[in-house]
């Protein structure tokens, strides 16, 4: 198992681990690990936004449902360039790790996918929640009441947002910054 806590990570509402790279170097590590795992016969659901600039988000489970898949898609979309661009939603490609390949001429943090991929639209909206003692950005679920605050792309800087959230929820600013995507924010009143 990859040491997932060095990457972006969260658990779905169905208690399935999702993790993905924070940058091109980490995406390269995740892609290499996925390719090695596929050679051993282990096949995971992997996601990436249709446009460049997102984590390779891995749903680390062989037993998952459509809700887990959609929560992974929201995670992937929210930590992509789409958030920084202020989009409300973006397209996410869903494929299996057995479909990926890496050629020597490919840039760091990229991979190829053969066979057809499934696409979904994912809303960019994260709620902060404590998981394993860490502040995590997770997709909104209306039945859940444990969210500290919910956010969507907006015009308030990441620094100001982190300062305000730290003041409200009692976490250090650095911990909040680590849980947030890159870009601007608006508090989402749910």
Mean pLDDT across the residues is 91
Termini Cα gap = 36 Å
Round the Cα radius of gyration to an integer and report it: 16 Å
Number of strands: 12
**Into which percent range does the helicity of residues fall?**
25-40%
- Outline: globular
Question: Would you tell me the structural class of the helices and strands?
Answer: alpha+beta
**In DSSP terms, counting alpha (H) and pi (I) runs of 4 or more, how many helices?**
5
Main sheet makeup: 6 strands, antiparallel
| The number of domains | 2
Proportion of beta-strand residues: 25-35%
Spell out the helices and strands N to C.
Answer: EEHEEHHEEEEEEEHHE
**Low-confidence parts, pLDDT < 50 over ≥5 residues?**
none
Strand order of the largest sheet: 1-2-4-3-5-8
What does this protein structure show overall?
The protein has helices spanning 24-39, 66-78, 81-84, 158-169, 173-179; strands at 8-11, 17-20, 45-49, 57-60, 89-96, 100-101, 112-113, 118-123, 126-131, 134-139, 149-156, 185-187. The protein has 190 residues and is α+β, with helices and mostly antiparallel strands. It folds into two domains: 4-123, no CATH class; 126-187, no CATH class. It has a six-stranded antiparallel beta sheet with strand order 1-2-4-3-5-8. Strands 10-9-11-12 form a four-stranded antiparallel beta sheet. Strands 6-7 form a two-stranded antiparallel ribbon. A hairpin with a 5-residue loop joins strand 1 (8-11) and strand 2 (17-20). It is globular and about 45 Å long. It starts with 7 loop residues before the first strand and ends with a strand.
